[in-house]
Structure formats: C-alpha cells, structure tokens
TrEMBL record:
Species annotation: Rhizophora mucronata (Asiatic mangrove)
Taxonomic lineage of the native organism: Eukaryota, Viridiplantae, Streptophyta, Embryophyta, Tracheophyta
Protein name: Uncharacterized protein
C-alpha cells in the first residue's frame, strides 16, 4: 500500500484502464459482434 500511496492517481488510471479492457472483453463474450452485410 505504501507504493500506491505515493502515486495514487497513476495507480488509479492504470487500474481503470485494465478494468475497462476487462469489461470490453466480457461484453464481447456476452454479445458477439455481428458484421452488417449490405
């Protein structure tokens, strides 16, 4: 906890970025992207 306390903002951004990527992957698993063919 001492390391994160020095740069809490940096750690928070990194954590949010990883969490965002994880959420995008989970959404991709649940809802498969269907290419629209015209």
């Amino acid at each position: 906890m001492t390391k994160t306390r020095k740069h809490p903002q940096k750690f928070l951004i990194l954590f949010n970025h990883k969490n965002f990527i994880f959420q995008q992957k989970e959404i991709g698993k649940q809802i498969p992207l269907i290419p629209i063919r015209k």
